[in-house]
Amino acid sequence: MLSTATPDALLALAQRLSDNGARGLLISGGSTPDGRVDLVGFEDAIRGIKDTTDLLVNAHIGLTPRPDIVRLVACGIDAFSVDIYGCSETIHDVLGLQAEPDDYLRVMDDLHRAGAPVVAPHICIGVHGGALVGESLALAALEARQPKLLVLISFTPTRGTSYETAHPPSREAVLGVISEARHLLPSTKILLGCMRDRGDRSWEPSAVDAGLDGIVLPAAATMQALRESGYDVVSKKTCCAFA
Prior knowledge:
Blueprint: H1 7-19, E1 24-27, H2 43-52, E2 56-60, H3 66-74, E3 79-83, H4 88-95, H5 101-114, E4 119-125, H6 135-143, E5 149-154, H7 171-184, E6 189-192, H8 204-210, E7 214-215, H9 220-228
Parallel strand pairs: 1-2, 2-3, 3-4, 4-5, 5-6, 6-7
Helix pairs in contact: 1-2, 3-5, 6-7
């Protein structure tokens, strides 16, 4: 990701991206100690992006409070990506935050109340060091809301973190969560997002069989296998939140 520490830097970057043919950008970043991706003060820059370019803007805002959510929706952000967790222990031990699953659901609900055009909940499969801990509870919470879109990603060991020697979730674990999501969310578009372990891509066609509607950056072999199986494969150059 590219650093834009000031509103002017964000607007200038967006203009360069637009001039070079980009179709959109994701605004994210590190979070505050209470779990916010602090975009307060960037509203005018985001309005400028929407006024002067055709870029689609997706924002990952963390545990942003309700008043700030209202302001961010009003400045023209096209989509919001919201992390959803089902287990307090994961939030405390993995994220290091004194928050609860309901706090993340509150962000999703506040975005809907504020009129956000697109709200894209994300569930990271195996985020607790590769183990399945609260995924079923997260899906159960979404079942009551029946979102239009759900993005599933998966834990990837990262060098320099306390989980660098952990293993990503097994293919069986990922396929199980996909199947459960499809069962609980029959009308939701379910996508496999870009943030996932890609050491083994052979199971991607099985993930579509299990209930996926799309895969971000699939292997070429996956697309070929799906075509041979009778699927109509459509390619889109867009962020998962706009699928």
